[in-house]
Amino acid sequence: MNASGRKDMKSVKVSEEINMTKLKYQRETETLLGRLHLQDKLQRKLSPADFLKVGPPVKQDNEVSEKDVAYTFLQRLMMLDYRARYIPVRQDSPEVSNSTLVREVFTEGTDDDDFDAFCSTNSVFDQSNLRTHVHPMDVQMAVFHCSDSFFKQNMITKLSQCQYALPLLVPDPVTMDIECPLWTFRQIRKTWKMSEMKDDSNVVTMKSMSICKAETPMVSFLRLGSPSLSKSQLMNTLINDRHNTFFHRNCPGSTKSRHLMDGVAEIAWYCPAGKPNDAFTDCIAFCNLHGDALSFEKQREILTDKSSVNVVLVPTLEKNDKSSAVISALYKCEKPLICLFADSDGGAVEMRKGKYKMGLNNRSQSEVSEELRETIGKILSVSHSFFQLESMNKVCGIKVDEEDTVCQKGKSAAMKIVGLLQGIEVSKIKDTYLPCQGQLWKEWSKIHKELYRLKGNIEDDKVQKEQKLMEKRQEQVNVSCSEPMKMFIESLSTLSGKEKDYFLKWTQILIDALSTDDLSSILQTYDTKWAEVLALKKRHDKTELLKTKQTELNKISIKLQSATFGLEHIFREMGQIYEAHESLQKPTKSGPTDWSKYPELAAELMISGHPMELMDGDAGHVPLTWISGLLEEVIKKLGDKRVFVLSVLGIQSSGKSTMLNAMFGLQFAVSAGRCTKGAFMQLVEVSKEMKKDFEFDYVLVVDTEGLRALELEGNATLHHDNELATFVVGLGNMTLINIFGENPAEMQDVLQIVVQAFMRMKKIKLSPSCVFVHQNVSDIGAAEKNMDGKRRLQEKLDDMAKLAAKEEGCDAEFFSDVIAFDVQKDVKYFAQLWEGSPPMAPPNPGYSESVQELKTIILSKAKDCAGITLSQFKSKIQDLWKALMNEQFVFSFKNTREIAVYRKLEVKYGNWTWILRSNMLTIDNELHPEIKNGKREAVELTYLHQKLNKTYEEIQKEMTKYFDDDREKDMLVQWRGRFEDKIKEFRDELVKGVKRKLDEVIQQKKACKKLYDKKAEFENNLLQKSKELAHKLKDKTRDEQVLKEQFNSVWSDLVKQLTAGTKPIEDINYDEDQSTVLQDLGFEWSLVNECKIGKYKTMSHAGDYSHYVCLSKQSSTEGITNGVRQSDFPSEEQPLIRSLIDDVEKQTIIQIKQRPVASTGYSLTYLQEAANTVKQKVTDFESKKKYALKKEFTVDLSLYIFDRAWTWISESHKEFKVNNDAQSYVNSKEMQFYRVFRNFCKGSSSAVVLGELICDKLKSAIVEAVCNKVAKDLTDTMKSNYPAFNGNRSDLEKHMLKSLAKKGDFNSFIIYIHQPRDHTETYIREEVQNYISTKEGKETGMKILQKNLDDIQNLVSLDLYNATEKVKTNGGDTGMWMEEFSSLLQAKLTFNNICCKNFSDLNSFDFLKEEIEKGLGSIVKQLRSLSLDEMDKSRMKPDQILIDQLCNCCWVKCPFCAAVCTNTLKDHSPDKHKVTFHRPSGITGFHCKGTKNLVNDFCTTLVASDGSFLPGHSEVSIPYKEYYKGGEKFASWEITPDESKLAYWKWFVCNFQKQLEAHYNMKFKERGTIPSAWKSHTDQEAIDSVDKL
User: Fold this and answer.
1) Considering the domain boundaries, does residue 740 fall inside one?
2) Looking at the 3D structure of the chain, how many domains does it have?
3) Is the pTM here over 0.90, yes or no?
4) Which of 273, 498, 914, 1580 has its CA 20 to 30 A from that of 643?
5) Alpha helices in 132-262 (DSSP H)
6) At a CB cut-off of 8 Å and minimum separation 6, what does 1288 contact?
7) Of residues 1194, 1190, 1178, the one with CA closest to residue 1111
8) CA dihedral sign of residues 1358, 1364, 1367, 1372
9) CATH code of the domain in which 286 resides
10) What is the model's pLDDT at position 1370?
């Protein structure tokens, strides 16, 4: 075989060996991943989303199973616990022995034999311990390989924070290719301080930059062969001798075998602190190649090429071995070389320039370390090469992760944007390219806040400010969508998921790079200036110098604010572009300028874990429109999930964000120099295994900018901090209060703000829980110190509670009076974050333990909370912020969620009460016939309660279920007791009401007993006389006309004969009675007559009463004279006269309705009583006034009362007449007995005649029963389905307003304004009539009618059959049959017996039954076409039933605008009166004192203004903002300020301005001038605006 062939064979053999090695390596990798339960993660990588979840608390000290090691490592690493590498492993697998068990080997033999075996090195050792748990660094690298690039980045960032070395060169476990994970370093920033001598003084310079950009010397450590000393351990002594930066063989958990670390090059940086004891004076990178460098040629070449100094560790050096060749090459190159000989003695020797050798044998670690440090320092003190991480991009033969196509695409998009920003001073970037969020937004916010501080002509001032707001929005629109913003939005819209993630990361990275240098220098200047200010303060220096220094500090602060620029500012700009376009309703365009898509884009990011700005700290404002749009999109994508809101408060840079990031794996910015002002929110999903324990799906964390030092800006800052604290405390279900350090002054500032915020929450009925976190405590282990600290904190909180109570105007002695608080459980002490002094100190392990304990506390408290839905969170943001805009926060807060929950409860209450009422109506319908038929002579309350009890118990169960199971049960609990009492009260009132009505029927029955007995006698006599007359004329004629004449000839005599001795009841002569009563009171006939043709019917809602007034009391006794001049009569008296009319009407109508008109008839004395009451009330009113009311006022008011009472009096008297007038009764029977007479004349049998008589009675009974049932059932249908009636009181109000607008009738509006109940009753009647007249209403009514007719027909037929069968069985006569039939029927219908002695000859009951059934069929057929209008004649009327149900509510009027409280409960104390929307006070005649100028202001605007008013006749003015101090009438109302954007009442005032002015004889002028902007509202806009409420 030739040489070429041998060479090929050798090459094939080498290739096979490599493949075998690869296969072996891959199999070992698979085994390792299998042991760690990561086998599927090489393909389906771990991502940040896997760990951005609220999971169970991480195990701290217990051993974990090998399969859980990887996840436990990650969880602890994310919490900044550097002990994550040292997790004790519990061996579960039988083939892997447990290292804690010692194997026992007993030998038999002599003692000498035993001792020989004991000393023998060849004797039995426990070999199983050599293969125990997985090497800790294999765990780290396995997780690294199984993570996607973003999670790798998170992981490496955390490792860096833990001061661990990071993988720089990593062999791929599958392909064996070498990769540089440059991307994973991109989030790491390092800060260090360099000290150098300048002009005999030590100057310290701070540097802070991305580690990828840092140019530092690099020292590479390699080992050749297998020396006995640990290279990694030696490196640790150079960097931080108290922390294992590089894992080495002597670390806890280390094993001899490792798999994934060989060939990995790790890098770490030493960062000096600018102190004399620094190991090195500048930042230095240390690189460590794990494993034998001879085996990893590529890595060795890269490191030796990139390093400034190469340090090589060898056991010993033989001239011709492999190590010698490597050392020789390094020795010959220019790079400095330090060769460490493990087996040689002696100190460092410089063999030639830059080439050192050092022996390690027989030398202490510290001695070697010190000498090596000095040597490296000496080498680096002269010129040397520098290393930059980014240069790894240019190294050949390795794969850099950033070269990935997806990453490059994201980077390319980001670079295009940042390319536009380069060359511009960082502090000007925002003004140039993000103009919407700068001055324009701040000015808009300032003007918007002024809307709650209105002055002068308030509505006009408001309109002007609203116009200015729109102008600012227009300016924002004009400058919006700069080129970088367009590019940003386009990339966000078009890039795929991973591309978008890279794009956002790259954008932040590149933006940070722009501002690094500027920020560093500004921060250094700020620190210096701040130190000067503090020094002056400590000396209590109050000179001008302090003011000057503070001014300079403020200027630096503003500059720092301008230079702070990040991704959050781009999102803020998106929000402002959206708000500007949305408020102007600009049309959308496709592409990057389609502003309507912005919330959706932001929602996707928020769901994926990005923090979103909730409150812009620079402008001090919440962009409500943007936040609402964003959350709506989140709801669309996730559903209306429940969230537990965790708010965090604390002084700036106090470690809040670090704590949250460690606790939940969040991404809040933590760099001290990058504290963007504002509040940010981030969603964290609750993991599957935790969801079963909680009622919410997400934790929503709200992190704040931090409360600033109060010394800087005094009161302005205090107000801002109070605002911020109140806002985030109000939003949170729980608030974490983060206190940093042990400075009592700083702590007091925070506590003052927080306690006041909690005090406000208590007053507005929000009850978040709280936990205090005391960070950076020096000795958290000392229990005594902790107890003392808690005692002092409790004392401070109690002191602050007293101060806050004084400030907020309420009582509180202790903090626990303000909020549920247990100082033992709700205070958590945190260890210091760093274990040692930064920048080289790792995090304190105690810190992560504290984080874990705090997380456990939070989750245990959260278990008891249902959280709130995202839509409720959205509403809460709006409510809190709008209230904060007002100076009177507590009185301005309007809890939209609470209102919505209460309205829903009102609807439920309405449904429950309706079920009870409906059931009671059914009971009424059942008992009424029994009473009328004489079957029941008394109705007891207990009996009615028993009848209703089943329904009541069902309602109670439903209520219990609702209050216990509803998602809002935590909020509903405050009303539970009250509504349970109210439903009981309603039941009792309902039962009493029905008993009262039935008692009246019983009384009427008793009062009319004589007449009822006489009626039976009348009927019997009429029947007898008809029969006798018929027998006389029988067979003589069959001519109808003749028969009629014959009957008439005897009928009148018959009536006279039967009614002899009874007096007919007269009809009422109401008009004459009114005149008589008024003349008897002393009023002239001419005055009364003149008043009768006047406008007394509308006097309750008249606008002007001055024509009734005499300023001289003597002249009031004269007749009608001209009224006083308008200018002389105080306008303030007008509403008082109207109140007099309302009060008198209410009292007298009640008085009249208490009279027994229906049972004893009408009497003139009832009018006399009413007129006397009117006269007395007017006299009492006059006695307190300086003016008199003319006689015509008393006459008009009396006539008005008489008119209001007429309907009730006439109906009651009519009922009395029907039941008591014998003559009317007999006359009503004429046709019935003519038919009897005619039938007898024609020879009809008794069965036919009796059947017809029975059918006559049945018809009226069926009509009555059917009409009552149809009325009740139709009302049921309308209450359930008719929009105006099936909601709560507010819903009814909306429908009435729409109806008024559509009618456009001014008088109807005036009645609605001044007599709301009358209008409501009229509206209900009209709507019922409208419904009945519609096609749907008619069809529904007819269906109900048909069903009830069928039911009654079936019941009568059944009774007829049963009665007939019983009589036939028992052989009874006609009387028995009638008694049986009546008895059965009277349980359902009002049916009086017919005397049967005239039908004794009846012998076929089957024939009678057939006759009745035939007649019944005819009746039912006739009634099937019965008009629904006939229900007006029935006892039950749908409109009256609905009025009783819907008008049984609160009717108290707003003291300013007379809007009626819309609470469904009549007495809803302690809840205050509220109305969904108020209106301009001028529409009620409200005017400026001493003028005739109507007020055009909404009271909801007035209470936010600086104006004041005079309550009643008081001369002391009350500020509108403190309206509740005006007396009970005002204090009983809750009027929350709003922007009063409702178009409805503005439209009304403009549309009916002239009518209003004429009605009240006043004008809308001067301060009451109607703003021109109001006149633009159309009828349809007004109607539509009602739906928005």
Assistant:
1) no
2) 6
3) no
4) 498
5) 136-145, 149-161, 231-239
6) 903, 906, 907, 910, 1462, 1464
7) 1190
8) positive
9) 3.40.50
10) 85
In one-letter notation, the amino acid at residue 13 is K
Long-range contacts of 556-561 (CB under 8 A, 24+ apart): 556/522, 556/525, 556/526, 556/529, 557/526, 557/712, 559/427, 559/522, 560/519, 560/522, 560/523, 560/526, 560/673, 561/618, 561/677
Give the list of residues 6+ apart from residue 148 with CB closer than 8 angstroms, or none.
45, 46, 47
pLDDT at 710: 36
Residue 133 has pLDDT above 60, yes or no: yes
Q: pLDDT tens digit string along 1356-1398?
A: 999 899 988 888 888 788 888 888 888 888 888 888 777 777 6
User: Burial letters for 1537-1565: b for 16+ Cβ neighbours within 10 Å, e otherwise?
Assistant: bbbbebbbbbbbbbbbbeebbebbbbbbe
Q: Is residue 1030 part of a domain?
A: no
* Domain assignment present for 140: yes
Residue ending a domain, among 346, 371, 402, is 402
CA neighbor of 766 nearest in space, from 649, 680, 876: 876
Q: Confirm whether 197 is domain-assigned.
A: yes
From its phi and psi, is residue 80 left (phi > 0), alpha (psi between -120 and 50) or beta? left
Do 1302 and 1583 meet the contact criterion of CB atoms below 8 Å apart? yes
Beta carbons within 8 Å of 1267's beta carbon, 6+ residues apart? 1430, 1431, 1433, 1434, 1435, 1436
Give pLDDT tens digits for 1099-1146.
Answer: 888 888 888 888 765 544 443 334 444 456 777 788 888 889 989 998
In angstroms, the CA 1484 to CA 5 distance is 114
For residue 585 the two structure tokens come to 């309703």
Q: Which positions ≥6 away from 21 have C-beta within 8 Å? A: none
Let me know whether 144 and 206 are in one domain: no
1473 DSSP β-pair partners: 1533
Q: Are residues 148 and 178 in the same domain?
A: no
Distance CA 907, CA 902 (A): 9
Same domain (yes/no): 244, 370: yes
Residue-wise pLDDT for 391-413, tens only, equals 998 898 899 999 999 999 999 99
Give yes or no: residues 1322 and 1263 share one domain: yes
Structure tokens at 926: 């059942």
Q: Which domain holds residue 1192?
A: 1070-1220
How far is Cα 651 from Cα 661, in angstroms, rounded to an integer?
Answer: 17
- Helices 870-884 and 715-731: crossing angle in degrees, nearest 10, is 160
Q: Which of 19-23, 545-549, 1000-1004, 1175-1179 has the highest mean pLDDT?
A: 1175-1179
Do 73 and 170 belong to one domain?
A: no
Angle between helices 567-584 and 598-607 (to 10 degrees): 140
Integer Cα distance of 144 and 1218 in angstroms: 98
d(CA 1526, CA 516): 59
Q: Are 44 and 151 in contact (CB under 8 A)?
A: no
CA atoms within 13 A on the CB side of 490: 16
Least trusted range by pLDDT, from 39-53, 249-263, 399-413, 733-747 = 733-747
Same domain, 386 and 352: yes
Q: Decide: 1552 and 1306 in contact? Cβ < 8 Å.
A: yes
Do residue 205 and residue 343 come from a single domain? Answer: yes
Q: What H or E segment, with its residue span, contains residue 198?
A: strand 189-198
**Residues 1237, 1231: Cα–Cα separation, whole Å:** 10
Residues, the chain, total? 1589
Q: State how far the Cα of 1386 lies from the Cα of 1261, in Å rounded to an integer.
A: 10
Last residue of a domain, one of 1220, 1253, 1275: 1220
CA atoms within 13 A on the CB side of 410: 22
Inter-residue contact 1201 to 991 (CB < 8 Å):
no
Place of tokens 């349970």: 980
